[in-house]
Write a structure and sequence with these properties.
- With 383 residues, the protein is an alpha+beta fold.
- Among the domains are: 27-94, MutS, DNA mismatch repair protein, domain I, CATH 3.40.1170; 192-251, 5' to 3' exonuclease, C-terminal subdomain (DNA polymerase, domain 1, Orthogonal Bundle); 261-359, Dna Ligase, domain 1 (2-Layer Sandwich).
- It has 14 helices and 14 strands.
- The chain has helices spanning 27-35, 50-53, 64-67, 77-83, 94-108, 137-152, 164-171, 187-192, 207-212, 218-222, 226-243, 274-294, 327-341, 375-379, and strands at residues 2-3, 6-7, 19-24, 44-46, 61-62, 88-90, 115-119, 122-126, 156-161, 179-181, 260-271, 299-308, 313-324, 348-356.
- The strands form four sheets. Strands 7-8-3-9-10 form a five-stranded mixed beta sheet.
- Strand 7 (115-119) and strand 8 (122-126) form a beta hairpin.
- The two termini are 43 Å apart.
- Residues 19-203 form the UmuC domain.
- Its EC number is 2.7.7.7.
- The active site is at residue 122.
- This is DNA polymerase IV.
Length: 383
Amino acid sequence: MKYGLLTFEEPNPDTTRKILHVDMDAFYASIEVRDNPSLKNRPVVIAKHPNLTGGRGIVATCNYIARQYGIHSAMSAVEAYKLCPKAIFIQGNMDYYREVSQQIRAIFLKYTDVIEPLSLDEAYLDVTVNKINEASALKIAHLIQKEIDETLSLTCSIGVSYNKFIAKIASDYHKPHGITIVTPQEATKFLQALPIDKFYGVGVKSIPHFHELGIFNGKDLYQQDLDTLIKHFGKMGYSLYFKVRGIHNAAVNQQRDRKSIGRERTFTQFLNDEEKIIVQFEKLTHSVMKKVRVLGLLTNSITVKIRYGNFETITRQMQAEDYFDSYEEAISIVKELWLKHGNLDQEVRLLGVSVSNLLNPETSAIQLTIHEGSVDEWLGSSN
């Protein structure tokens, strides 16, 4: 294959591996319903009730009944309340959710040590070689799903395939409490049938661009050459070119360490009202700290980014004495940085919040202060 002045061989997919992507179903909300049976068959939203926060707050997640009303994660609690006034709002307990996540991990460890946690409620498992000497990846998926259900009274959905990308997409295919397997022989058909928005990395803002190029599904994507995809989508285009061909040989990474977590937003209408700027900082900080807590991490360093209408950009950082994972601690630092360094004489076109110096308290020795072939061959015999 030739790209620009370079010629290289297209890599071949490694179809020998057996990868699971386990995704808990509405994890936080399901724990609350499990522990309080009176909530069964009622819409449950994990967020502070907007009447208690002056209209502030973001939905962390909700159960499937609440989703029938149009509620979803990252929605404002006020909007969720308008969609379903009878919903039960629960603040949630991240420390408790971490404990349950560790119980789930203990189940995974019965089958393999090759585990890559993505968050408290999802992980990749490589079961190519496993502790029970089971050749069938599908059978292992059923065993894990059954044990989580029977021991923890929680459900999960599992994608089974030969690479992480396909396994992750497959886990979302039959939710809740489903298992979807995509063998190497089925991968091309599976990927080409997917709508373009089902490819991880394709965000809401980029979908219209794909549509403008006549790319509505995996089949359309497959027909594009590498030059075109890189020209229009850069690094993402390069990645998608191979992924739609079933090529994604990244290993399940047991030492998945993040150096930073950040969010930023560009405004088509510039901001010059301090109250609106603070609201946007609150939303960004909530999103960042939610990710920190979901990953079970701690931070002590916050950075804000401000870009003005004339493209002047400033970044300012502040480090706390103790490590923390709470939104309250983070937003107080963000507001302090804005008050010290923000300039209302200029309109704001972009705001960003990021955290660094991330630590996992379970693997750190530091004392921390926490404020909060054939199908048969590949599958193996299941008899």
